[in-house]
Protein: SAM-dependent methyltransferase
Amino acid sequence: MITRGTTNANRLRRVDRWLTGVHGRLLRAAADPLVVDVGYGASPVTTVELARRLRTVRADVAVVGFEIDPERVAAALPYAGNGLTFARGGFEVPLPAGRSATAIRAFNVLRQYDEDAVPAAWARMCARLAPDGVLVEGTCDELGRRAVWLGIGSDARPRTVTFAARLAGLGRPSELAERLPKALIHRNVPGEPVHAFLTAFDRAWDLHAPLAAFGARQRWLAATATLARDWPVCDGPARRRQGEVTVAWSAVAPRVRVITS
Structure:
């Protein structure tokens, strides 16, 4: 379905920074790197920014932005060039025959779908990935100050969940619950792993409240280090200093629903 299309310049800077920092090796190793942006919205600005940021890692990377609204595609065409193209398409990712994507970014797209529709959308997109490729699917606020995204493999199975925020404006880590991807947004309730994770994160944040005098970054670093004692945190201090923390999907994945008659 056509998304609302709301977007802003620099909105996806946090996920782009993670993509180039954590998965830059994929771009460097690919023989013919291709990155896809699915559902860029009413303006192509974030796709243009994605291409620019990716080229700091691999100058010859090709970037394709897909939208299902033909009017949005037409509006984006003046921005095409230097390896950046725009075309009509959606979760099927209609790349030319024989081409596969090194990475696919699908941000703020699945939030307006039903939760049951998410696995099929992942599977369709991941079918167009290279064997070692990554799908980055998530949600952020209007200004990109708070975001949560999944790192999904070519088998359509999530590997990681990343929580990211502008620390200066963060009251408590659990405020990021508002930006959970569709696969998790309805699971932030007692008894679900993601709720337990955010509760533990708040507890660690409160434990290190005295460090607030030295800045939110120091408090975040201490809280995430405490969190890592009991949760499978995947990144190190270098990434966490940027207001991120990544955990294994297995630790926060939704519990299987049991349907009773």
Observations:
- The mean pLDDT is 95.
- Strands lie at 34-38, 62-67, 84-88, 101-107, 129-140, 146-152, 158-165, 244-248.
